[in-house]
Every structure is written in structure tokens, then in C-alpha cells.
Recover the amino acids of this structure.
């Protein structure tokens, strides 16, 4: 039975028992004090019952499956991070999710392409940039830049819209890496 009770309920029961035992040992029994003892016992029982009920009510809530999956995925991401690296911000997590949603073949193509988050989008009037000469030429190091400042400025008021635009921007820049020019990427709807 003690395993079904929360630790706080077990502590409350133990303390109430010890207090009752001390009262009985230190205060000699007399019939005149039966009502006082009954009041103490009733009070202790009330505390025990209230604590047990509270513990049972608080322990019944279950985590929704989506929340469990989100926490699980975040834990896996954190376990892959080198020791001492900072935790990703909410924006960085959205970019990571957008990358994770890409097909496995694209992950293989991107394994050596850094994806950087920058706050210089206002200077370039852009949400993202592909810097490189496509995977076909590979003359110098390619990288993708996602501009947090312009994305949050234009879409940050709606979390769902921000997430959708981050996904679109990541896909747009990946399409450039795959060799599509700006007109071709726009024809893809990106």
C-alpha cells in the first residue's frame, strides 16, 4: 500500500504517527483527557486523509502523447549535443524541426552543409540565403543561412505561421543547394 502513496503522503503519515506516539508517551493517560486525545487523533487522521486525497488527485493527470513525443525528441536532440554547448532557443528548435522533416536522402546531401541562424536578414532583405555553388559544382564550402530577425519580424506574431515560414525557407534554400535557380525554386512553390 505504501508504494501507491506519493512520497509526501508517506512522510505526512509517518510524522502524524510519531506525533501521536510522543503525545501518548509524554502525557500520562487520564479519562479527563480522552476528548483532547480524540481531537488530536481526529486532526491527525484528517491531515492524513486530506494529504492522501490530494496526492491521488495530483498524480492522476497523464501527459498527452504529443507532449510526450515533443519532450522525447528534444531529449534525443540534447543528448547529441556536445557537452558545454548551449541549449537551442525556440527559434533554433523550429529550424531543427524543419530540417528533421526533410527526407532522409536530403539529410545525406546536407550532412556537410552548415545551416546557420543569423540576425542580418534586414541587411539582405531576406528570410534565408544559400551561399555556395550548388552540390554539383562544389567549388567552395556551401552553407545555408536562416535569418531569425526578418522571420520573427514578419511572422513572429503567429507561432504556426512562423513555423510554416521557417519550413518553407529551409526548403527554399535546400532547393538552391540542389541546383535550382530562383525562378525554378519559385515554380516549386517555395
Amino acid at each position: 500500500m505504501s508504494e501507491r502513496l506519493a512520497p509526501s503522503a508517506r512522510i505526512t503519515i509517518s510524522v502524524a504517527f510519531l506525533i501521536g506516539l510522543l503525545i501518548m508517551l509524554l502525557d500520562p493517560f487520564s479519562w479527563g483527557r480522552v476528548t483532547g486525545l480524540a481531537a488530536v487523533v481526529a486532526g491527525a487522521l484528517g491531515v492524513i486523509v486530506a494529504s492522501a486525497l490530494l496526492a491521488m488527485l495530483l498524480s492522476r493527470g497523464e501527459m498527452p502523447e504529443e507532449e510526450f513525443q515533443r519532450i522525447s525528441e528534444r531529449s534525443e536532440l540534447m543528448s547529441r549535443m556536445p557537452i558545454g554547448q548551449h541549449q537551442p532557443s525556440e527559434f533554433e528548435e523550429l529550424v531543427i524541426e524543419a530540417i528533421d522533416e526533410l527526407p532522409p536522402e536530403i539529410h545525406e546531401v546536407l550532412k556537410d552543409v552548415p545551416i546557420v541562424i543569423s540576425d542580418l536578414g534586414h541587411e539582405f532583405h531576406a528570410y534565408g540565403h544559400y551561399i555556395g555553388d550548388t552540390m554539383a559544382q562544389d567549388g567552395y564550402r556551401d552553407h545555408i543561412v536562416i535569418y531569425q530577425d526578418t522571420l520573427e519580424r514578419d511572422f513572429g506574431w503567429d507561432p504556426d505561421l512562423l513555423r510554416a515560414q521557417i519550413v518553407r525557407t529551409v526548403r527554399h534554400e535546400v532547393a538552391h543547394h540542389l541546383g535550382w535557380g530562383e525562378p525554378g525554386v519559385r515554380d516549386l512553390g517555395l
About this structure: DSSP finds ten helices and three strands in the chain. Residues 7-59 form one domain. The first helix runs from residue 7 to 26. Residues 123 and 150 are 10 Å apart (CA to CA).
